[in-house]
Amino acid sequence: MSLLALERQVLREVTLEIDPGELSVVWGVRRCGRSTLLRLAAGIEAPDGGVVRFDGHDLAEDAERVLGAGIGYCQKSLPRNGSQPVLEIVMASLLAHGLPASHARSRAGEALDRAGVGDCATRTRSQLDSAETVRVALARVLALNPRLLVIDDPIAGVDVLARDGILALLRSLANDGLAVLASTTDATGLSGADRTLTLSEGRLRGPATRELAAVVELRRHAGG
């Protein structure tokens, strides 16, 4: 059973299968369409033609239900409330989903620990460095227990010495069974990926110069 299927007329008829537990990274220069591709895959934007499906459901119809549940789209920017502690920033999405405050606090703390920034819980947004900001943004998504994590250019703007840690975190999330789809403009951002793709002139190419086109699929492990 396919988990995610992305179909667009501008792409040719080739299928790419991505299992849960796999980290896939799309490389491309700026303005090549990477961000648009990821937003389409996450259901943030609707395609001009074709259909995007997650777990067999058309995201044009179910995006509101799936986003924040099955799909976690990570926005690296955080709320600009300078006085709000990081823990409350992560809790906000859980509270919006109706989780009791005590449970939301516990899950937010666990997510911050998993993202490697548990010690930042009492800090404010302005007290975070670039890498910590990305990790907190990831914690906001992880707190919702998604099956697919989508993040656009996670190491952009991050200090060079901290980039390996961000990439290692994404690798470890995939190792835990999460499907991860990321993008990068920097070749170092491909580190640790199970599958690397290149987007150029509207064509997405993978290993052995295969072009991704009509369908992108995320499949469960056997029995999953």
The ordered string of helix (H) and strand (E) elements is EEEHEEHEHHHEHEEEEE
Distance between the termini: 9 Å
Number of helices: 6
The CATH class of the largest domain is: Alpha Beta
Overall pLDDT level: 80
In one word, what is the shape?
globular
Helix content: 25-40%
The CATH homologous superfamily of the largest domain is named: P-loop containing nucleotide triphosphate hydrolases
Poorly predicted spans: 7-16, 208-224
How many domains is the backbone divided into? 2
The secondary structure category is: alpha/beta
The CATH topology of the largest domain is given as Rossmann fold
Reported for the largest beta sheet, the result is: 7 strands, mixed
- The order of strands across the largest sheet is 6-7-8-3-9-10-11
Write down how many β-strands occur, each being a DSSP E stretch of 2 or more residues. Answer: 12
Named CATH architecture of the largest domain: 3-Layer(aba) Sandwich
Strand content: 15-25%
Radius of gyration, CA atoms, in whole angstroms: 17 Å
Describe this structure in words.
The chain is α/β, with parallel strands linked by helices. It has helices at residues 34-42, 59-66, 86-96, 101-114, 130-142, 160-175, and strands spanning 2-6, 15-18, 23-27, 52-54, 57-58, 71-74, 148-151, 179-184, 195-200, 203-205, 211-212, 215-219. It contains six helices and twelve strands. The strands form two sheets. The protein has a seven-stranded mixed sheet with strand order 6-7-8-3-9-10-11, sandwiched between helices. A five-stranded mixed sheet has the order 2-12-1-4-5, with helices on one face. Helix 3 crosses helix 4 and helix 4 packs across helix 5. Mean pLDDT is 80; it is low at 7-16 and 208-224.
